[in-house]
Amino acid sequence: MIDGPYGAPAQDYKDYEVVLLVGLGIGATPMISIIKDIVNNMKYNEADDPECGISTTATATNSSHNKGSIHPRNNMRSDLKMKRAYFYWVTRVPGSFEWFKEEMIEVEKMDIKGVLELHNHFTGYGKEDARASLIAAIQCLDQAKNGVDIVSGTSIKFHFRRPNWHDVYKRISRNF
Questions:
Q1: I need a surface site. Which of 55, 68, 92, 123 has the fewest CB within 10 A?
Q2: What parts of the sequence cross the membrane (predicted)?
């Protein structure tokens, strides 16, 4: 079953255990913000450590929404239900991935628990375009050797096709 949120893209995503985020072209902007927020909230949930002297669960609750405690230093919610988040970025313009390259690298480093799964899809080449096949072959070899995608410059694999949504939904439902 797939369920909302149906309002603004950044509305109530923290209330779900599994989130599928899809950004098309520049529409990835709010999704990148959500991803960064997810990682930041995970980081602050881990701050509930007796050795650091701060307990996020012992602080005042958010009475306007009654959705959990607020971290005393930064007003972050500490009740993130998220267990897994998937982000698919699809664009026809390969240079688009440069817009958020630094943010994607930062998110990868911060996601210690591996909660996020990130996918970049470039649809600017046709199905039978030899360039995509050649680049994909070199890409697989280089990523296996170095762990970095030659196209994106990150560990996030750059795909030269649209996502197969049927397979994506099936895989997510199996993993959940």
A1: 92
A2: 18-35
Helix (H, G, I), strand (E, B) or coil at 21: strand
SS3 state at 2: coil
- Residue given tokens 């982000």 in the structure block: 87
Closest by CA position to 21, among listed 150, 107, 110 = 107
Give residue-wise pLDDT tens across range 106-128: 888 888 888 898 888 888 776 66
Q: What is the pLDDT of residues 141-168, one digit of tens each?
A: 877 888 777 777 777 877 888 899 999 9
Q: Which residue has the tokens 């893209």?
A: 9
In the chain the domains, ranked by start, together with CATH numbers, are 18-40+79-175 (3.40.50.80)
What is the per-residue DSSP string for 73-103? TT--B-----SEEEEEEEES-GGGGGTTHHH
Residue pointed to by tokens 């602080």: 59
In this structure, the strands spanning 116-122 and 84-91 are parallel
Distance CA 141, CA 43 (A): 34
* DSSP letter string, 124-169: SS-TT-HHHHHHHHHHHHHHHHHSS-TTTSSSS-EESS---HHHHH
Residue type, 40: N
Cα gap 45→160, rounded to integer Å: 36
